[in-house]
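[job 4417] fold queue: 2 targets
>>> target A
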Amino acid sequence: MARQFTALLALGLLVLGEPQADTLTIKGRVTTPPCTLSNVTVPFGNVPVSEFDLGGNMGTSYAKDFTMTVGGCDLAVLQSVTLSFEGQSVPQIPNAQGLALSNDANAAVGIAISVTRNDDSHTGKGQAVRFDGSESYPLNLSANKNTYLFSARYVRVPGEPLRPGTANAVATVTVSWS
């Protein structure tokens, strides 16, 4: 009787053990990690009104250099990386190259901020940036450099009286890559 039971059990396993086929699907995407941009605060400190000459320029001793750093992405695999600037520009300064001061009850009057590209590694050294987002400033990827040097300074707004006060401004800098 023990033999019959073993034979029946083996026959049952053969019926139940029939192979089945199914599909394995693997989904994913290989991507470039997003580029990030460092937040920057440019501290001017106190600038005397007397520093503005009759032509409206501020003495160069008060200009402040600053660096924007692109991170989080591998520059070696990218085709291009650019920066663009957007903020409220002053209409009296041509080409949207004067950033308006923040609207504050104690804000200075007759002053805007100019930012100039100041980096030997990238094109356009000495040229002011536009604050209307219409221009993009490329990083020199062949130099494998992830920083961009700029210089900021206060400038007079033509036709406006000069009054001292708080002289802060904010612009959005966008990093784009492909």
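>>> target B
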Amino acid sequence: IVGLIIANIVRPGQGLNIDPATLNAGAVEQYAAAAHDSTIVGFLMGVIPDTLVSAFSTGNILQVLFVSILFGVSLALIGERAQPVLDLFETLSVAVFKLVAIVMKAAPIGAFGAFAFTIGAYGIASIANLAALIVTFYVTAIIFVVGVLGLVGIANGFSILKLIRYLKEELLLVLGTSSSEAALPSLISKMERAGAAKSVVGLVVPTDYSFNLDGTNIYMTMAALFIAQALNIDLTIWQQITLLLVAMLSSKGAAGITGAGFITLAATLSVVPDVPVAGMALILGIDRFMSECRALTNFIGNAVATIVVARWENALDRDALAAALNGQPQPIAVGPDPAAGPGDDLVLAKD
């Protein structure tokens, strides 16, 4: 929501005046032909695929999500008999993201070509708009971290600035790799030392990496609006809300992988036929710069969520948290741990 509001106020893509036909005429016609009924009934009917296979073959992200949710519920109802299927999907997921990581090794070459194409096709003035998008995104992320997450921290008894200082080594690692996944083991250790129960950390941190992607959500809404503004496409408030909701869902596939946020942006744009996915070429050249901010914002949001959930579950040692954020030695294990049985004593291992 923060990204949506600021993108509408600043309008970084305004003034480019790019003709969608110059991007890829075939792609524009394809998405124009795929336009569906904009009524609520038409939208809901468009979510339901003709067959299970057609949802994947047509690349309709809403239909894919619909099938995935139904299949997930079915697996949950089956119980332990579904474990082999879950293991298979987990292995396939790892393999797919490894494939993405390999492909992203060539990203600098592609980014250079895309950046050169954008400047050559639309003039040197386009650099100003791209720079405006980068600056707007970074400022928005800072506002979100300091403002929104800062207020969450105050409400839960800790300072967001002290938390950032506590995680400075991990944040430098995330900055260098543009991926929050690289710092996952260290984050788990730091959260336990900061007073969160091990059982809570073990559940919340990995879950956050898939479902709490604040930076990716901000990026996708701002990038989508930038492309629309650059192409002089006016999106209605309902189309923007749809983009926001789909971004919240499709971002779940961008967990921890460098450049995956850019890939899921295509899925987000596909739900608004007025904005051609080919417009992503406009921002491909600067995605690396934005990827770093995405990962940092995601990482800080995950740390905040872990502390908040631990507090809700009465599994947070406030003294250990205060000591950690103030740079003092702190214990690794804390209590009470919801997983501990009656009468279990807690042993504190000093750092």
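[job 4417] complete. Note on B: DSSP finds 17 helices and no strands in the chain.
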